[in-house]
């Protein structure tokens, strides 16, 4: 689960990690009030920041520093409601519905801090770089040595000596090292206690007067741990998510929308990945990833069908099921019922194997509906690709 920058900064604040003063606003009036309060409190400038679940906002025109209240009002007007396009939003961009109005910082250096799970190492890794700011992806790709790493032993956690090592590599001044250690230790504690999967502070800045701040903050949480964080779950902003994915999550369906035109319904994530591969191999492209789960029932299959059909790009449906816990006859009954109920007119291609496969095939054949059944996964993929090409 992703959250907004202003929410992430609230979390950091609770863990004693310094972030600039600021307030979230959803209206121009609200933004103006927030900016005025910051100027009244002595700010030299304010930053108007688009709040969307994507990075690269600065380059896209979604982050602007204002020296006066009038400029702040102008930038808020420019940014609120804009369709912000960044390298992470896709070509259509994301509509800005919230602003963060923040006290501007006098930046000395822009550095980088991050914590992620390194799956190969099976450990969290704390990363730091002097090359913070808006080009960190390029740094990682071209000069990976400019990113310093400390692997964290889960038995003892992130140690102060590791923070000191990173702080020295960042070239911080001697009098800043102690603050930096506190800063990094606070980040690590927040990461672990919130069950996060990613923390990125880019930039992590030093100011002209020597202070340290998290100027930007991106946090992702581990969805599988959200059941034990009711407070964090409330930070979810569904306006930032794909509407079909939001709908699917209501039914505990594992659905991710893609750009192709062959809708896939599969049980098991591995088989779902293989299905997308074989569609590609057969010359087509998948409209989605969908894992209905090992124990899907009729209701879930109906819901899944409904979600697949709401995608206007879809020209054919490919159902690839290996019957285990979900028996093939149960699946076939559900598919027939759903296809009848929802009046599905798109071609449906199936590949069925596993428990009660004969009964399943019989149910399809006797349904009075038109299904195509492939003998193998490749045959079925070929049929689905042909159906999508010739389909209405
Ligand atoms: P991102 O582009 O989505 O990563 O947004 P950031 O929050 O990282 O902001 C982008 C850039 O705007 C930063 O790298 C800074 O260079 C600049 N910026 C953000 N806040 C301030 C500020 O308070 N003062 C100044 N001078 N620049 C800022
Ligand atoms: Mn940033």
Form type: elongated
Q: Estimate percent helicity.
A: 25-40%
CATH C-level class of the largest domain is Alpha Beta
Structural class call reads alpha+beta
- Count of helical regions: 13
Tally the structural domains.
3
Summarize the structure in words.
This protein has 392 residues and is of the alpha+beta class. The relative contact order is 0.09. The mean pLDDT is 94.
Summarize the structure.
The protein has helices spanning 5-14, 28-40, 69-79, 136-142, 160-169, 174-193, 230-233, 243-250, 269-281, 298-309, 328-341, 357-365, 377-390; strands at 22-25, 46-50, 63-66, 83-84, 94-95, 99-103, 107-118, 123-129, 147-152, 196-207, 212-214, 218-221, 254-257, 262-266, 288-291, 316-323, 348-354, 371-373. The chain has 392 residues and is α+β, with helices and mostly antiparallel strands.
List the helices and strands and how they pair.
Blueprint: H1 5-14, E1 22-25, H2 28-40, E2 46-50, E3 63-66, H3 69-79, E4 83-84, E5 94-95, E6 99-103, E7 107-118, E8 123-129, H4 136-142, E9 147-152, H5 160-169, H6 174-193, E10 196-207, E11 212-214, E12 218-221, H7 230-233, H8 243-250, E13 254-257, E14 262-266, H9 269-281, E15 288-291, H10 298-309, E16 316-323, H11 328-341, E17 348-354, H12 357-365, E18 371-373, H13 377-390
Parallel strand pairs: 14-16, 16-17, 17-18
Antiparallel strand pairs: 1-6, 2-3, 2-6, 4-5, 7-8, 7-10, 8-9, 10-11, 10-12, 13-15
Bound molecules: guanosine-5'-diphosphate and manganese (II) ion.
Manganese (II) ion binds next to loops.
